[in-house]
Amino acid sequence: MQHIASRILDRELKKGSAELLILSLVEDRPRHGYDLSKLIESRSGGVLTFRVASLYPLLYRLEKRGWIQGRWVEKAGQRRRRYYRLTAAGAQMLASQRSTWKEFVDAINRIAGVEHA
Amino acid sequence: MPEWPRRLSEEVRQHLDDEYDALRARGVAHDEAMRRLAPDLEELASMRARPIDALAGDARYALRALRQSPLFAAVVVLTLALGIGATTAIFTVVDAVMLRPYGYPDMDRIVMLAETTRRGQTMSVAWQNFQDWRAQSHVFEQLALYRGMVVNLTGSDRPERLIASLASSNLFQALGMQPIAGRTFSSDEDRPGAPRVAIVSERFWRSHLGAAANAVGSSIVLDGEPATIVGVMPAAMRFPSRTTDVWLPLGPFVPGFPPDRGAHPGLFAVAKLASGVGVERASAEMDAIARRLERQYPISNTDHTVSVAPYYEQIVRNVRPALLALSCAVAFVLLIVCANLANLMLARGDARQREIAIREALGAPRWRIVQQLVTESVVMALAGGASGALLARWAVAAFVASRPTSVPRIDQIAVDLRVLLFTLIVSVATGVAFGLAPALRASAIDLVTSLKDAARATPGAARRLRALLVVAEIALALVLLVGAGLTIRSFAALTALDLGFDPSRVVTMRVALPNARYPELARWIAFHREVLARVAAMPGVETVGLNSATPLEGGASESEVRYEGQPPPRSASEDATTCLFQAATPDYFRAMGIAIVRGRAFTARDDAAGAPVAIVEEALARKFFPDGDPIGRRIAFEFAGGHGPAARPIWREIVGVVRHVRHYGLVREPDNLEVYAPLEQLPIWFRERRPTMTLFVRTALDPEQLAASIRQTVSSTDPEIPVFGVTTMDSYVGQATEQPRVNMTLLSAFGGLALVLAGLGIYGVLSYLVGRRTQEIGIRLALGATRADVLRLVVGHGMALASAGIAIGLAAAWALTRSLGTLLYGVSPHDSATFAAIAALLAVVAFVASYVPGRRATRVDPMRALRAE
User: Fold this and answer.
1) How far apart are CA B756 and CA A75, in angstroms?
2) Fewer Cβ close by (within 10 Å): the C or N end of chain A?
């Protein structure tokens, strides 16, 4: 029971907050897709993972909305990769989503009585 | 490095490369690495494919989603199977009977002609009148004449009775039919004294002539006379009936027709309209001809005109109202099914709001999500359609096996490819119909709201949509149930009718003696006397009688009847009282349980040597002798010397009065009065053209068991004579009530289904609402509301929906049941008792459907409900 509940939570939370995660990760520096997926997995301690089929469409959509911008970068000895960086509009959206998320988490904490989220 | 599909973007392929490299670097073998990447690839394939692939992907996804909720899927598929199955079954019948082209090339130009009185009574055509029609009309390309008859086929091991038709030589041209072998009749063969020839049906050609190529030219023995086969007609030739096996030229039989215009010897005309001529113009011309004949022959033709009706109309006239009503009913059922499932899908859409929100978040455009959801409902509809087609196959097979006599082309009714195509279209349409609105609803989710509210609140629009669907369902169910209720009342009225006889334990069969074999009347009568004696001696037989007519079967002989002392009429049709006259043996009345109200039945002394006697029905006695005793008075229905003032009545003394017997079916009875003469004093009309007598045997045992041995006994009297139509009077009654019974059964079944679905609809919506509002209910309870308040809240909501549905349904039913008119007997289409009862029934069902979730709501624990948030 516990197991199933946490699995559902995991699926919903991680996907519901997908935009927030991506925007946060490209905030400090541009990153490529594989990098992003590995970061999400490692930083969440393996709780959150993204499938290729989910990640890239999301990236394209965020780019289409003008929140991130991708460009091909050639590096010596490596094949070219597409790096995404946060745009000004993206930074604004990130701030707004962060506060929404915080409100949401706080609200849940208040009701559910979880001390540290 | 593995090869990734080319159509993936470079970026995605790199990602896969990276993942593969990473796995390999950790020491994972190639195969294992590929296995781990497989889910990603599969997902990519379904997301990035071209539309057609996307559809397949959606279908796969839909199947997976349905497997995850098998109960939901089972309920949906079963509901769909019932709805689509019923629709398919009714369509199968409608298609075979009304939509498929009939086998005649110019069906729309074929018309049927009959003589009618201006009061609307239909008669067959007088031979002399037909000659004038033919000479004077210009609106027909062909004007042909036919007459149904029964012939005995002998010459093989067992004599057989064949359905035959006398046909003028141009009948086949009028219908546009070509023989598949040989030729049609020549005009020389269509003359008195011409050598006997015959055309046979394809069925007869196969069953009796072994489909032999040299069948044309061979001969068969009909009614004791050899006839040469000149042609074979294709199976599409089903005129005058689909059971017609042999056609004979009419000409040689003409000398046997009565010589005067007042006689109507069972002839009917069929014509092909000249090109460019409509039915109205043909009607107008025939009416003009009838008026000329009226002036020329006032005695026989006064008040007579000609009816011209399209042949197609005549075939479908009797079944069309029922088929239309059933088509409407089944459409209603399907609409209710859609409404119910749309509601179910809305609820499911709510439950899946998160899943959908996530997909949106992941960049799936809205149309993509709608497509996915609609694919899901279409997949379910297809599953339902497949099961429905199976149900329809069984239902239609069972219906055809019950051999309904009132349905034309019954032998062609089957679920075939054409029907399955219809089912497929209906299934897809149904899937879209019940899936689209919920899909649009479900996909219109604001991401932030759905996260914030944790998918708690149902948007107002969706709630209104659900309420609307339930109201529509109840309204449709009410209309259906009112229709079903009316047919039930009508059927009850039909079965409560007084038949005038007691059908239980009566076996009947017919014996047609050909004139050629029994030319003298004495021998003909002696044969019947012998049959009666042999059957009466059988164990298990209580009484046995013969009659020239069969109750409920119609087709008896009619004539004018008058009483002694009545002033003679000025013309044949003026004020004439017509009677249905029959020739019966003494025990006929006892065998059929026909009550003798006054006087006596015939006895053995009422023979050729005795004084001519008759038995009449009560209504005739009342009409002719309102004040006095009819016994001993004299009536006549036979006239020596033709019709008109010159006719000399042949008087018979009334010896008995009996109850009225229904002869023309249960519902419509022409106002003929019934008269019986003793068989041994055979009416003169019958002396030339002897009737086919029907044997009525009242048994002490199960009539079905005795039927075969009675038949054998009758056959043993003369093995050359076929005995046919062996059945029970109960089955005649069953046949007469068949169409109303089928209508009632089907409408009730559809109504019942509608009731269950509507009940489930209310229940579903309220259960869902209670589930959604657990918290609100908890708060209400915490704030001091009583459980009764909560129950009232939920049930009140349900009853509000029900009331709206019932009100709309009553109005719609009031408007629609009028079209049931011709299907109803003894009950008004606006029968207030039925309307009230059905409204009450729906209200009760709605109450129960609301009460159950209402009770659940009262059991909400306020504390738990509040903590749950």
Assistant:
1) 70
2) N
- Chain A to chain B Cβ contacts (< 8 Å): 67
Query: Which of B9, B11, B41 would best serve as a mutation to test chain A binding (most A beta carbons within 10 A)?
Result: B11
Q: Nearest Cα to B669, choosing from B718, B720, B630, B619?
A: B619
CB contact under 8 A, A34 and B15: yes
Buried b or exposed e, range B542-558, using 16+ CB within 10 angstroms:
ebbbbbbbbbbbeebbb
Helix (H) / strand (E) containing A105: helix A88-112
- Give the pairing of strands B140-154 and B122-123: unpaired
Query: B376 in helix, strand or coil?
Result: helix
> In terms of C-beta density within 10 A (0-12 exposed, 13-18 middle, 19 or more buried), how is residue A5 classed?
exposed
| Residues with Cβ within 8 Å of residue B463, at least 6 apart in sequence | none
Tokens at B792, concatenated: 């009232």
Q: Where are the domains of chain B?
A: 1-48, 50-106+319-457, 120-302, 480-496+730-869, 513-721
| Radius of gyration for the alpha carbons in chain A, expressed in angstroms and rounded | 16
Q: Using CA atoms, how far apart are residues B618 and B107, in angstroms rounded to an integer?
A: 46
Cβ atoms B691, B465 nearer than 8 A? no
- The SS3 assignment for A31 reads strand
- Inter-chain CB proximity A53 and B15 less than 8 Å: no
Residues of A in contact with B19 (CB under 8 A): 34, 52
Residue B221: phi and psi, rounded to 5, are: -105, 115
Helix, strand or coil for residue B798? Answer: helix
Mean pLDDT of chain A: 78
| pLDDT given at position B867 | 64
What is the spatial distance between Cα B695 and Cα B536, in angstroms, rounded to a whole number? Answer: 11
Please list the helix, strand and coil fractions of chain B in percent, rounded to the nearest 5, in that order. Answer: 55, 15, 30
Nearest to B100 by CA among B408, B317, B321: B408
Angle between helices B738-772 and B320-351 in degrees, nearest 10: 10
Q: For residue B190, what are the contacts with CB-CB under 8 A and spacing of at least 6? A: B168, B169, B249, B250, B251
Residues of B in contact with A56 (CB under 8 A): 9, 11-12, 15
Q: Could you tell me which chain B residue has the CA closest to the CA of A51?
A: B40
Q: What is the DSSP letter of B690?
A: P
pLDDT, tens digit (0-9, with 9 covering 90-100), for A14-57? 555 788 889 999 998 899 999 998 898 888 877 777 778 778 87
Nearest to B413 by CA among B392, B384, B439: B392
Nearest to A82 among B11, B19, B47 (CB): B11
At residue B211, φ and ψ (nearest 5 deg) are: 50, 30
- Rounded to 5°, angle at Cα B698 from B694 and B699: 130
Q: Which of residues 250-289 of B touch A (CB under 8 A)?
A: none
pTM exceeds 0.90, yes or no = no
Neighbours of A77 (CB within 10 A): 4
Calculate helix-pair angle for B417-443, B460-495, nearest 10 degrees: 150
Q: Which two tokens stand for residue B110?
A: 């074929």
Task: Sort strands A68-73 and A81-86 into parallel, antiparallel or unpaired.
Answer: antiparallel
Asked if residues B152 and B512 have their Cβ atoms less than 8 Å apart, the reply is yes
If DSSP states are collapsed to H, E and C, what string results for B441-496? HHHCCCHHHHHHCCCCCCCHHHHHHHHHHHHHHHHHHHHHHHHHHHHHHHHHHHHC
Which positions of chain B have pLDDT values less than 70?
1, 6-7, 45-57, 119-120, 157, 350-364, 444-461, 554-556, 568-575, 642-646, 668-671, 865-869
Check: CB of residue B65 under 8 Å from CB of residue B376: yes
By the 8 A CB rule, do B482 and B835 touch? yes
